[in-house]
Amino acid sequence: MLTEFGKILLFFIFGALLVGAGLITAWLLRPSQSYPEKDSTYECGEEPIGSPWIRVNIRFYVVALIFLIFDVEVAFLFPWALVYKNFGVFGFLEMVVFLFILFVGYAYVWVKGDLNWDKPQPLVPTIKKQNQSESTEQTAMKSAEEA
């Protein structure tokens, strides 16, 4: 008679054999000849333009991570809403603290500007060069007259 751990071991062995059989079957049945359409990049039926090895702005990753963090935290609200009445006032205050921390994180990300897709370019001051025909004295006289 097998123990409980022996049954688990047999389950893992059977699973490994099943995965191995699937991989071997796919290896035997797949075509081995490569052709250009097979080697091309496929994205939703669109023809690829340019190289797939491009630099992606880091802001896309930051926004994706922020979305995942807030999405997971909001997922905690659904089970809490189901048992809200069982927790009473203490459970409500815990959720208020949780939502406050969530709001502080959201405000921090917003103030930091990580949610803005178009970051404004810094305005670099430029110095206008004087025209070669004008002398410095003429410029000084014009500015004195304007004042």
The appropriate CATH architecture is Up-down Bundle
H and E string: HHHHHH
Please indicate the count of domains: 1
- The radius of gyration over CA amounts to 33 Å
Number of strands: 0
- Strand content is under 5%
**What best-fitting shape do the alpha-carbon axes yield?**
flat
Averaged pLDDT: 80
The low-confidence parts are: none
Distance between the termini: 105 Å
* CATH-level-4 superfamily name: NADH:ubiquinone/plastoquinone oxidoreductase, chain 3
For the largest beta-sheet, the strand count, sense and barrel status come to:
none
Total of helices = 6
CATH topology: Methane Monooxygenase Hydroxylase, Chain G, domain 1
The percentage helix is 55-70%
Helix-strand makeup class: mainly alpha
CATH structural class: Mainly Alpha
Describe the structure using short key phrases.
147 residues, mainly alpha, Methane Monooxygenase Hydroxylase, Chain G, domain 1, 0% strand
Task: Describe the fold and architecture.
The protein has helices at 4-29, 36-39, 58-75, 77-82, 84-112, 136-146. With 147 residues, it is mainly α. The chain has a single domain (4-119), classed as NADH:ubiquinone/plastoquinone oxidoreductase, chain 3 (Methane Monooxygenase Hydroxylase, Chain G, domain 1, Up-down Bundle), CATH 1.20.58.1610. The radius of gyration is 33 Å and the shape is flat. It starts with a helix and ends with a helix.
